[in-house]
Amino acid sequence: MKISFAVLADYCNCAEGGKLNIMGIFHRIAAPDFPATHAQAHVISSCIISEFDKGKTFDYRIEIVDADGKSTLTIKDKFTIPAQFPGTRFNLNTGIKGLPIPKPGAYSCRVIIGETDSYDIDFAVDRLKTK
What we know:
The chain contains no helices and 9 strands. The protein is mostly beta strands. The N and C termini lie far apart (49 Å). The chain has strands at 2-14, 20-25, 28-31, 36-48, 57-66, 71-80, 89-101, 105-113, 117-127. It has one domain (2-124): Immunoglobulin-like. Helix content is 0%, strand content 68%.
């Protein structure tokens, strides 16, 4: 299994046939005060799989870390690719309600599958300028 791409977005759902409907892909967000909470975000990953992966269960982890390497959120889960899964793409969509943002700056969202594959999504958090 290999993560082909991963994005942060405001929303995502999967249509019949596995088609991803992704809305509001972002790499920068802003808040007026800190600590802040981003109301809703989705971490979407698309993986290339082989016949060897079908029927197996994988550990799945999302880590949000700030520029100092401090973790602000960790989500751990497992998923199984059905043995009879058609095709070579498997999509994951993880919704996050209340993404904690302690301070402005650079962040990274790391998607980790199993022990060997990971994908980093870098994003920035700015202080919203008010008049």
